[in-house]
Amino acid sequence: MGSFKSGLLVLSRNIRSKKRKQKKKKKEFTAEQLSRYNGTNGSSPIYVAIKGRVFDVTTGKSFYGPGGDYAMFAGKDASRALGKMSKNEEDVSPSLEGLTEKEMNTLNDWETKFVAKYPVVGRVVS
Ligand code: HEM
Asked: For the segment 37-66, what is each residue's pLDDT rounded down to a tens digit?
């Protein structure tokens, strides 16, 4: 009886740890890998990263897909551009260097919006 109970305990622990792993499973992308998800690859998803966190923005294809107003952010970590409210190519970068407090707040607001709207699929690694 004791061994039956402890067997069940082991089983349920295993299931729980598997579930935890599944939930946690986040892909790691280099900037180069991320850049492939820029919406020009037909049916593949579109990703945008904020502070290294990669969001699947495919449902926002009208914004980020080819010809969209924000297509320059697709396949990129656009943190700097979002903080500065800029669509300039040179601002489409993960660099937070020299952003003002106001710009950091703007970026954090975008992050909050994205967390609410889009699934996270992974992180950008260097
Ligand atoms: C005159 C200037 C602008 C106007 C009138 C404008 C207007 C809008 C509107 C109406 C939306 C759709 C909002 C929604 O349906 O949820 C939108 C989305 C967006 N705007 Fe702008 N925008 C302007 C400039 C900018 C600039 C300079 C940036 C640069 C960071 C920017 C970044 C974005 C982004 C990233 C989205 C998509 C958000 C999402 O994925 O839901 N916008 N904009």
From this structure: 999 988 899 999 999 999 999 999 999 999
